[in-house]
Amino acid sequence: MNQMIRDYQQTAMRYIDSLHEAGGDRLTGRRQAAARRFAELGFPHTRTEAWRYTGIEGLMQRGFELTERDEAFPRHAVMRRFLREPTAARLVFVDGRYQADLSDTGLAGVRVGSLREAVAVGDRQVLEAVGSLSGLGDHGFAALNLATLQDGAVIRVSAGVTVQQPIELLHLAGKGAAGRAMRPRHLVMLEADASANLVERYLALDGETAYFNNLVCEITLAERASLVHQRIQQESAQAYHLCDIHLGLQGKAHYQGINAAVGGVWSRTRIHCRFTDPGAGCELDGLYLAGEGQLTDFHLDVDHAAPHCDSRENFKGILHGGGKAVFDGLIQVREQAQKSNAHLSNANLMLSRRAEVDTKPQLQIYADDVQCSHGASVGRLDEQAMFYLRSRGFDKGQARRLLCLGFANEIVERFQSAPLREQLSEVIGQRLEE
Amino acid sequence: MLSIKHLSAGVDGKAILKGIDLEVRAGEVHAVMGPNGSGKSTLAHILAGRDGYTVTDGEVRYMGRDLLGMEIEERARQGVFLAMQYPVELPGVNNMTFLRESMNAIRKSRGEEEMDAVSFMKLVREKARQVKLDEKLLKRSVNTGFSGGEKKRNEILQMAVLEPFLAILDETDSGLDIDALRNVADGVNRLRSPHRAMIVVTHYQRLLDYLEPDHVHVLAGGRIVRSGGKELALELEAKGYGWLLEEVAA
């Protein structure tokens, strides 16, 4: 174990001790185990296949701190970023801290609140759920998240309840986040036959603050439950964003995740779904946009370990300037997973010669009665289309903007919330007309 | 309005146009006919500013300005419109949005006010009815999954909305059945005006049954080998291009 790992572990241990001294924390044992796991794993490096194209040097050099600070922030600026549509509940985190007075705990059948509070009051369901899907962590950052986790959202929907309006989970980073590593963990639990729509966004109050969001999200859907999960990562231009999402889908449960990653200097999202019961479905759509100095990475890991499950993944990326993207989509279909449907597609639009994408769609099939497909493409703007648009009066920038919006539209349209579609189209339009 | 003088151009060192002279005045409709490979589409493309052609000689003046020195979008903003032989599909780009932004880009460049959404919708619906384009296609992506006839009608719709001064129709009749041909021709006829000129590039005479040209030019081997009135088109229809090419060769 090298000195740096030892330092990080000791810092984590001190943090755990400080919680203990402050009156105890019902997760102490798990935190300590995760800190030990971290010491075994160390930080990921590019010699590991899953991190081959995603270096962490910049992140390590920054050396974000575990400290907690409670800095004032402009409330109106937070409220201005609320989702512009009626919501069933709202959870607001600013600089990693839960803001009860800006949150709204919602309607009957929906229970939302802060993870820290749930742990403090000894909520058994929550205590059991922490780490139930993620384990102690399969890479160093995930282990550190558990060892030093601060807070997060707990969202529960009771059996048979259908929540039409979105549940909003809003994260904002302001000046108080500067130089800090935040470690949120979210738990989403839908009981049998429940259905809900979750809008999760990471936004910056200040466009240039540097911070690290190291988060983990565990989502459990009981039998026949259904979740639409709309996610937008639009962190500050200097932010690092790392997110692991673990999905536990029971029989006939359905998860639909729509993702957009447009912000941050470095961001990586991993979505892990393991089918252990028949008849479940997982749909993942994603859009990423990376420009000068930005890296964006999506790792999808779908494991068909039960028969009759469906998975579909469609990710699209636009790379401009010196932007860099990594896409790694793995689908495994195990021997027992007969009658699986699994389809994976990744398309990339390169607007500059300096842009780079490493795409790796993979299918590993051990069952014989399945329908699977996968494909990836990397292309440039169609010259004929550019000519067509310019011959209709659009200048090059406008033509490029329109074609990129057209390319992205397939994913943007998957977002069910109109304000999110507008927000994304606006971001794409602004970024690409420059 | 348009004055082409000794225009010679080619692709990758291969000469395609070898000294074209053509004068088009406001209010006139010129048909440019000719066999395959004669350079008709090249001429249309060069006028619209398509990349990939090298002009080796001559000049083109449009409303007194050097057309060849203008960017593609600048030509469009100054009123040049090319209805394409193969309209491009733009997946994900809404047809109505495309039309509105196109019109507003042109209006803005002329210092005119952008048209508001309601008036624009009304205008487009009206024009779509005229060219018999199914209104549903306005809500779809530009040309995506359109039939050949629908694509051509969509081109004519754009022309009707953008109201160019110089409209160039590049084989707009190719691949159309007789009804579509008639709709397209009606759409074009409706746009005839003393302020507008048109160049209709076609292989066949049949479009000219509906669109009476003032002048007919036959392009062969990169040159205009004959010019005449509409009766020239009829002669070509009856006798084909062969006799003319032989006569020119002799």
Description of the molecule:
The complex is a heterodimer of chains A (434) and B (250). Helices cover 24% and strands 37% of the residues of chain A. Chain A is of the alpha/beta class and 434 residues long. Chain A folds into two domains: 3-382, no CATH class; 383-434, no CATH class. In chain A, α1 (3-21) runs antiparallel to α2 (28-41), α2 packs antiparallel against α7 (140-147) and α8 packs across α9. Chain A is globular. Chain B has one domain (2-88, 162-249): Rossmann fold. Chain B has nine helices and twelve strands. Chain B has helices at 40-48, 72-77, 95-109, 117-130, 148-162, 178-190, 206-210, 230-239, 242-249, and strands at 2-11, 14-24, 29-33, 54-62, 65-66, 80-83, 90-94, 141-142, 166-170, 197-202, 215-220, 223-228. In chain B, strands 6-9-10-3-11-12 form a six-stranded mixed sheet, with helices on both faces. In chain B, strands 2-1-4-5 form a four-stranded antiparallel sheet, with helices on one face. A two-stranded antiparallel ribbon of chain B has the order 7-8. In chain B, α4 (117-130) packs across α5 (148-162) and α5 (148-162) packs parallel to α6. The radius of gyration of chain B is 18 Å and the shape is globular. Chain B starts with a strand and ends with a helix. Classes of the chains: A alpha/beta (434), B alpha/beta (250). Chains A and B meet through α8 and α9 of A and α2, β7 and α3 of B.
